[in-house]
Design brief:
Keywords: Membrane, Transmembrane, Transmembrane helix. With 56 residues, the chain is mainly α. Helices cover 96% and strands 0% of the residues. The protein has one helix and no strands. 0% of the residues are buried.
Length: 56
């Protein structure tokens, strides 16, 4: 009986750890994706500004 309860507790802890890791991975992926978007936007602004300066 006690072993079954301990096994259940261990499984719950493992599931919680998996969920935390998954959540942290999603968070890191979102941060990386947002940084890539920002870099893209900054490059776009830079090149548009450069074109404006060179041609006008």
């Amino acid at each position: 009986m006690a072993n079954n309860n301990m096994d259940d507790i261990n499984l719950e802890c493992e599931n919680d750890n998996d969920n935390k890791i998954s959540s942290e991975k999603r968070l890191v992926d979102d941060i990386i994706e947002n940084n890539i978007r920002l870099i893209y936007i900054y490059h776009l602004i830079f090149f548009c500004s450069l074109i404006y300066i060179l041609y006008f």
